[in-house]
Fold this protein.
Amino acid sequence: MPRTSELPLPPCQHGAVDEQQVGQALIADVPSAFDESVVLLDVREDDEWQRGHAPGARHIPMGQIPARLAELDPNATLFVVCHVGGRSQRVAQYLVGHGYTPLNVVGGMQAWASAGRPVVTDTGDAGMV
């Protein structure tokens, strides 16, 4: 019998959204500066964010996305990131089901940091992933 972690995930409950419908972005394709038109949405938990995040990223933890959906501009270029890419994939699937066209950041913040990109805390000090 396979371990629980090896079982396939159930289909999304918000319609027929599968992984093929979510665009994937490698770190090299993710810009390093963000504004209202290009958003890096960090969906990690508060403690992960506080340890370190990308400068200019917007933080909305995964569990708060449904309640805070209106904070996201559906016309913005939206890159979704978590620690390694699993949670961000799920959030991206949810966003696709609600009319957004997000890109999941492959490898998440681990890939961001491994590529030598800056990681900061809220005070601007060097952070860690």
About this structure: Residues 13-114 form a domain with the Oxidized Rhodanese; domain 1 fold (CATH 3.40.250.10). The radius of gyration is 15 Å. The mean pLDDT is 88. Residues 86-96 form the longest helix (11 residues).
